Amino acid sequence: MYFSSSSQKFRWMVLGLATGTQATATFVTYGVGPLAAIWQQTFSLSQAQVGLLISMVNIGPLMSMLFIGRALDQHGERWIVGVGSILLGLTMGVSSLLSSYLSLLVTLLLVGIFYGTAQPGGNKVVIKWFDSSQRGLATGIRQAGIPIGGALAGWLIPLLSVRYDWPIAVQLQASSAFIGGLMFLLIYRDPVKESKIPTQHVNFIGELRNLSRKKSLYPLLFSGFSLISFQMVLVAHLMLYLKSKIEHMTLVSTGFMLSLCLLFGMLGRITLAWLSDTIWKGNRIKPLEMILWMSVVGLVVLVVLPEKIPIWCIYVVCSWLGFFGVGWYSLYIVEIGEKAKEHSVGLTVSYALTINQVAIIMAPFFFGLFVDWSNSYALPWIGLASLLSASGIWLRKSSSIPFIEKRMEFNTPISGQNTPHEKRKKNRKIV
């Protein structure tokens, strides 16, 4: 048995802890989206400059995540995730004292560097504590921390900024991340194993080279690139789009729509991941294909929204966009984690997330630049729908490879277990 009776109970507490830490960290980073709309008025910024604010907070993880993934494989999650979240809160708190656009950009870069500990660390917690029969559900619950944090940011930050001032909202973000990191540091422990696997020393550059050569990963990585672009554009530009497109919508009401979108994203992350465990029997690719095409449908509807439309219709559209355009992430992460070797789960997840960071950085900025150039949102939305369509076609073609063969090639054994191939290798060494 991988878990003792006590750890069977404690793992759900660990899952709640990891989810809460992720939510408080995301409350900071996703809160930059609503704050950007406020900073646009405060600092008289263009759409491209607003997009650069979103991009800057995501350059940090691009710089740090691979090294963090390697450190997680070598040293575990407790100190890296806990201290990272504490530093995230302290750095964000500094931004409430700033009064210039340039200093804000530099501070947001540091915020992003410390946020780089949350995603790979939390995903490795799930890989450690849950086996493959429940990993989709557990990942979905943990990943729900992202839309929870984002939804709170979309609701609270505009509300506090309008009633008081934006530094008050930033201070709330900072204290939340600090407390989340402190709780993780004090409570989290690794699972107790009955048998320990010797630590494997693998060359960092060599492991990265091996990952980059796995061509069978390319369609999945491109799907992640496309979907995270869609998700981040929603976070950064949905409020501004609805405010400019729909009559009688205010900053507070558009913030509520973003919150609704992210709340349905939370529901999607849990529901779709659970269905992949049950209905699809561990196949994550089929639901990912469906998500891509449902996201395209949502974008088309978003483009053709009339200026005068019943409010319930906007609720439906935002809920649809959130369920699929934000709810995809758990499926993607658990698929990447299951394809990793046991000794390099952190690095493999960080590798995929680093590629995603490129899209996270580029998408909001270039989408805003495209809006400025075309003086319209229609063409940028259509371009994004085309990217998702291309990804869906490529993923569909790649799924013609039998699912069982792909799973045999990449499946990650639960800690404490050996694959038949590993057992044969050990037997040869004994002889």
UniProtKB/TrEMBL annotation:
Pfam families xrefs: MFS_1
The Major facilitator superfamily (MFS) profile domain, residue ranges: 11-401
Cellular compartment(s): Cell membrane
Chief location bin: membrane
Record keyword Ribosomal protein present: no
GO molecular function, one term: transmembrane transporter activity
Protein topology in the membrane: Multi-pass membrane protein
UniProt keyword terms in alphabetical order: Membrane, Transmembrane, Transmembrane helix, Transport
PANTHER family assigned: BLL3282 PROTEIN
Protein name: Major Facilitator Superfamily protein
